[in-house]
Write a structure and sequence with these properties.
By secondary structure, the protein is α+β, with helices and mostly antiparallel strands. The protein has seven helices and 24 strands. Among the domains are: 43 residues; 59 residues, Cysteine Rich Protein (Ribbon), CATH 2.10.110. The protein is elongated, with a radius of gyration of 55 Å. The N and C termini lie far apart (173 Å). The relative contact order is 0.03. It comes from Rhinopithecus bieti.
Length: 372
């Protein structure tokens, strides 16, 4: 029956509808294909292809998967986390609105930028959020590269050296007083010269500095062994730098006490060099560097040890009389007194510069001694 309907269609398709013959009544066809042909014919001409009493064919139900949808595809990343996208494939339902967050214009089929989960058309995004170029002062549009350095922004074509105007894109550069300079212009204008080779120290390379002078890292070497000093300790002498071992071998003085080289922190006593830690009191071994001291028989002593060991005792207070620093004292018959202790035994009157009398171990003023 289906074949019959199909043959009928093929046979008469070239004829105009008014010449189509009526369908054969002796063979009522119940096929879905022929029924659809009859309905098509009835739609074209009421007098041709009368519908037959056939069972209606059930229509398929629409499911969410059969509904037309519209999607978004990433096109261009933007600074600050924004993304430029264009709506073109399944993802957003056609029945829902998808508008610019600012101007409310539809974004279907248009480019847009997503910022903080909100979509913006290109025009609104550039008006509201586009950065301004430092060089030309114009906004940096969505279709341009935005080059940034320390919160400043440039068009790709505007990112060039302030002096020679050569592009700095994907090249090293230096900044000086808000100006961008290529390495050649910067070195010619501002870079220091190496103290050793007299050549320019290029920006971005490591350099060594000491007392206003600069060196390439490879030029800062020991004058004696010619090895790079780097960040190790060194000793300058006569405008030349020496590593510590070479200086000790060539220039360092030998400590009188330990016979080792003195590189730093030495002291001189009686024209002889000492390490600070070696110049100590003979008695208590306390360091004497920066302290008052005295010597006896070529041995150095701190004041306390010297007074305890060698100083005379005051006949008045029995404390040592050091005699150092210009201290004055009175001496009489192998006895000594501090100036402040040379007083009358009875009335305590100072006898410095006055006459006095003695009674056994006591000294008296003339008034107190007249009754003796």
């Amino acid at each position: 029956m289906v074949i019959c309907g199909v043959l009928f269609v093929k046979k008469h398709l070239h004829m105009p509808p008014e010449k189509w013959p009526p369908p054969p009544s002796a063979a009522p066809c119940t096929s879905a294909g022929f029924a659809s042909f009859l309905l098509l014919g009835a739609g074209r001409d009421p007098g041709v292809g009368r519908p037959l009493p056939l069972a209606p064919r059930p229509r398929p139900k629409l499911t969410p998967t059969s509904e037309e949808t519209l999607g978004i595809t990433s096109v261009l990343p933007r600074p600050g986390g924004q993304e430029e996208r264009v709506a073109e494939k399944p993802g957003v339902k056609m029945t829902e609105r998808f508008d610019c967050h600012h101007c409310n214009e539809s974004l279907f089929g248009k480019k847009y930028i997503l910022r903080e989960e909100s979509p913006y058309c290109v025009a609104c995004f550039e008006t509201l959020f586009a950065n301004t170029c430092e060089e030309c002062g114009k906004p940096i549009g969505c279709d341009c590269k935005d080059l940034s350095y320390k919160d400043r922004h440039w068009h790709e074509a505007c990112f060039h050296c302030s002096q020679c105007r050569n592009s700095l894109v994907d090249k090293p550069f230096a900044a000086k007083e808000d100006q961008l300079l290529c390495t050649d212009c910067y070195s010619n204008e501002y870079s220091s010269k190496c103290q050793e080779c007299k050549k320019t120290i290029m920006p971005g390379t490591r350099k060594m500095e000491y007392k206003g002078s600069s060196w390439h890292e490879t030029c800062f070497i020991c004058h004696r062994c010619q090895q790079p000093i780097g960040t190790k300790s060194f000793i300058p002498k006569d405008n030349q730098n020496f590593c510590v071992p070479c200086y000790e071998k060539q220039h360092a003085m030998q400590c009188v006490q330990c016979k080792k080289p003195i590189t730093t922190g030495g002291v001189t006593y009686r024209e002889q060099p000492w390490h600070k830690e070696c110049f100590v009191c003979t008695a208590c071994r306390k360091q004497l560097s920066g302290q008052r001291f005295t010597a006896r028989d070529d041995f150095a002593y701190c004041l306390n040890c010297f007074c305890d060991l060698y100083a005379k005792k005051c006949a008045g207070c029995t404390n040592p009389i050091s005699g150092l620093g210009g201290t004055k004292y009175i001496s009489f018959e192998e006895r000594q007194w501090h100036n402040d202790c040379f007083n009358c035994k009875k009335c305590s009157l100072s006898l410095v510069g006055r006459g006095f009398l003695t009674e056994r171990d006591d000294i008296l003023c003339p008034d107190c001694g007249k009754d003796i």
